[in-house]
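User: Quick sanity check before I run a bigger batch. Here is a single chain. Can you write out its predicted 3D structure?
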Amino acid sequence: MPRGRKKTIPVVENIDEKIAAVEDEIASLTEALKAKKAERKELAKAKLEADKAAALKKAEEEKEAILAAVAASGKTVDEILNMLKK
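Assistant: Done. Predicted structure follows.
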């Protein structure tokens, strides 16, 4: 004779309603996922633009620093370029 409790199968009365509820939840989560992906895409674009702006600003600052160093040396830009070529 088998020992232990007898396992009973739970009776689900509203299977169709539960299936519909799960499908609705899946649709809702799918829409939320699409919205988040679109938001991520916009944030990536914004980050790219910000990185480009920062690179341009840095290049401009480096250019100004070089021009200031040339001006402080007392030589013309052409003289400095000729020295660099040699």
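The chain has one domain: 15-85.

User: Great, the batch can go ahead then.
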